[in-house]
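During the reporting period, our protein records have gained a structure token line. One record among many is quoted in full directly below:
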Amino acid sequence: MTTIRLLCGVLLSAHFVLALTPEQRDKNIKSFEYVWTTVRDKHWDPKLGGLNWQAVHDELRPVIEKADSMEQARSVLTDMLGRLHQTHFGIIPAELYSEVDADGKKEAGGGPGSIGFDVRVVGSRVLVTSVEPGTPADKAGVRPGWELRKIGTQDIAGVIAKLDQKFQDSSLRQIIERRTVVSRLEADADKDVAVEFLDSGNKPATKTVKHAVPRGELTRFGYLWPTYVWIETGRVKSSAAAIGYARFNMFLDPPRIMGAFGDAVQSCSSCDGFIVDLRGNPGGLGVMAMGMAGWFIETPGQRLGTLYMRETSLNFVVNPRASVFAGPVAILVDGASASTSEIFAGGLKDLKRARIFGTRTASAALPSVIEKLPNGDGFQYAIANYLSEGGQPLEGLGVIPDVEAAPTREALLQGKDPAQDAAVHWIESQRKHP
């Protein structure tokens, strides 16, 4: 906070910060040493790609010792991790970490509720990409293609502009921007939210939308925050082909999700093609990708890729099912598809078993853990590297679609889905010209 003081008739400008106590300084130094040592001892590459990690320590240790605030201390830690040039390494401020680490914060019927529609940031616009039927948002008249402009009194365009500037060179920009908007929409489940849109007629439309219990079933796994997980399956509209469809929001709850996925594929054994929609899916359990890929791979021993850890490696070997779908497979992805979604899509693409439609994925495929530091902050670090079967790292590159098809306001307002429409067209063409 900047304060203005008048001393002896002279106007002075100063930055007022709360000085750290000796104990807090000591905890920051201990946190620094813990982060540095963890990277040294647990990073999958002992040589850190040639980075002189000891030199980084010796350069930044005096800086952390002189840090006069938590912000300065975090800046030093962030700078140190930034030398790795890898995602999944970062510092989570204590106030945010305490929220993530809260035991049982999200119980059934508690925590944020669902607003009933999804969004994507396209250019500088936040567009509604889908509306869940029967939800308060649907009943209020919210429709795909509408542009979201305000949440309460907050101008969303300003928020996106700041994020664009901060993450302009990051492949994680779309997933961060989407999560930022959704978190604001779902922040307080006990209160209705007033949202201003630009409707299909380019006129401002303010809707008061009530929260609803999220769809799906509340799933708990290990230290992950309890999450509602859902899957939808069926057929895609096509006048020229029979096309199966499956979409799910996370690779979690294996018995239910993998069971429903398998049923969808089996029920479509005679279909002309199958679409797996992973848009917005941030990932989850990597082993589920192997099991699901087994519905589309006939040859035993095929791999989606390899996970490289410090002492060993794990091959994502696909085990074919007794009855495999042999027709064309299309996978839909976007900038909010990450982790296991990228492993599944990238692996099947490399094996030439699927064609990818949409936009580039988030380039965030590495498994990571989060630990609490002595100063109360959280420390996220990756524990392995991943290479696709084609030998390409997904980290920093992502899965590049075979067919680029991004959503537009015009298409959404017309009820069209460019990525899905392109996938349907391809499957139809395969039926005519096998």
About this structure: Residues 19-85 form a domain with the Transcription Regulator spoIIAA fold (CATH 3.30.750). The mean pLDDT is 86.
